[in-house]
Amino acid sequence: MLHGYGASLAQGALLTLSVAAASLGIALVLGLLGAMAKLSRVAPLRRLAQAYTTVIRAVPDLVLMLLVFYGGQMGVNALSEQLGYGYIDIDPYVAGVATIGFVFGAYVTEVLRGAFLAVPAGQREAALAFGFSRIQVLWRIVGPQALRHALPGLSNTWLVMIKATAIVSVIGLSDLMSRAAQAAGATREPFLFYLAVGIVYLGFTSLSELGFAWLQRRLAAGSRRVSL
Amino acid sequence: MNLEAVIGYLPKYVSGSWVTLQLLVLALVVGLAAALPLAMLRSLPSAWVWRPVWAFTYVIRGTPLLVQLFLLYYGLAQFDWVRAGPWWPWLRSAWFCAVAAFAINTCAYTTEILHGAMRAVPAGEIEAARAFGMSRWMVLRRIVLPSAFRRSLPAYSNEVVLMLHGTALASVVTLHDLTGVAREFNSTYYLPFEAFITAAVFYLLITVVLVALFHAAERRWLHPLQPHAHP
Amino acid sequence: MQRRSLFLITLVTALASAAAPALAQSPDWKKVRIGVEGAYPPFSEVGPDGKLKGFDIDIALALCAQIKAECTLVQQEWDGMIPALNSKKFDAIIASMAITDERKKVVNFTDKYMNTPARMVGRVDAKLDASPAGLKGKRIGVQRATIHDRFLTEVYKDSEIVRYAKQEEVYLDLAAGRIDVAMGDSVAMDGGFLKKPMGKGHGFFGPAYNDPKYFGYGAGIAVRKSDTDLQARFNAAIPAIRANGVYKKIQDKYFDFDVYTETK
Questions:
Q1: What is the pTM of this model?
Q2: For A188, phi and psi rounded to 5 degrees?
Q3: Under CATH, domain C118-215 is a member of which superfamily?
Q4: B172 and C CB contact within 8 Å
Q5: Burial class (CB in 10 A: 0-12, 13-18, 19+), C154
Q6: B169 contacts in chain C (CB < 8 Å)
Q7: Rg (Cα) of chain B, in Å, rounded?
């Protein structure tokens, strides 16, 4: 049905998932750090975080990825020559994951910042008044409540991220998109293969949405919703 | 850094930015115009009404923009009956395919953003309005929509920026947008740093302006919801 | 603050060491990485099994056997080929890349291993005139960053030049009627388009182009300017495989004419 390209597409799909998952880890860590920096009282930290989110969100992933892949390699080459190491390869996988993780860390920063702000200030004040340490306030009071507010934004970000992995095909990573392009070019049937790719991505996002809906239900206990 | 080559190519970067902006504005305007009625339909209680809208946003948000663009541009052109049909003069043009793909994409995301914001309007406000005897339409117009628009601002600003990035894909279907110009520069002079950093600077400028506009909008319309003192 | 920076340092080190397991450069060229395109049939393409195949691929493997090196093929998008070579992503480019003076400014080339002319393709019933005046206002499709791209940009100023990342995308749009003409390597377009079902109704028109100013001196292997010894090894290997019949065997697999010197 897929003219024999099925196995190749499946391998590409696995690679796509792997890139997305690895990038998510990096993005969450960077996002948490960024959000805390943006909300902190230390002005230079706030400015650094602001610069991070502004610059990264300003440049298309495609352009950043090309920069990291070619330019980053040049930078690493220069550095490693200085330090006397041999050639350190930034392979497309590392370049792709680093870029996407770094880029989406900026988006997660904004989502988490909004989520923290959505928790009523009184909660934090009361907790501090009770003698909780700042870390305890984050972990036990503000954090769990913020998580509920963060979920829609985080799920959106994850969904955007998994689709953004399509661009790693540009730097030569043999992911789902790039294998479909090869098949389409060789068989002259782009519609069939891009439709197949669309269905696979839809599968990924469907499973993700189910997961998030479950999480949302668990965390939303206690809030009401009235329809029109 | 080979600044000479960059300066020589600047006029092309400027015209590329212009193409990018045109694509962005067209896509956003069409997408937003379509998203408003769709979001309202999406928020109605009847499943016959909201399910089709949900299905639309589900499929569009569930697949990469690149795939949607390729399906529209290369995929449809593969079929003889499409090429002989009445839509062909439109579908033939890369410009139309790109704007259509971008508009459909942003429409789906904006619909969900507006819908989510409409649902986030505090239940108490709606109940109070209904208790006062306001009709459903009036509740929508005077309570829900104004509140929803304000709440959507941060998420919509994200969406606008993401759509700006999306326009970079136009270069993949032969259009001379900002990214397309950068790739041409790279392949002519073999200077990837200069090529892409220049493009990045242009995108940065456009984004800074967009973000500033949204910040101003947030300050004006989201003031009640902002924290008033540093934590 | 301290905990945060410690964490960051750990993260960066972890990332760096993940990137470290790499191919160290072997100055004796026992291991060579070759950059190929994989989207330029019949010279290089990817089969349903995901494996690279084509004339360029076979030549690359044959040359590696000749210089007694273990070769890895690295697939790369065409318009990033030379930057990738200079970034040391691979050590040589074997991708039907024409030897031109422009490119010689940034890389070195071996002697040619192939030389095929460029031609234009269009619908037979359009009776097109290949001169710049005859194609005024027409849309000409070409692959970005090729010698054909540069030729068209400089000579066909009144035509609309439409650039694609892959040659295969040019074929798709030519068949769909989005472009009136395609320009490229005659052999590639013959095997990759005209002889396939989607090429029906299309044919060559106009002359064969081989002015060295634009089209170079044949296709060669590109290497970094600093790697003169690798260049020398390949330069010795090319006549060697021509002499011992390996070249002819590979050529016969794909073509029924000689691609080394002029064709047609």
A1: 0.78
A2: 60, 30
A3: Periplasmic binding protein-like II (3.40.190.10)
A4: yes
A5: exposed
A6: none
A7: 21
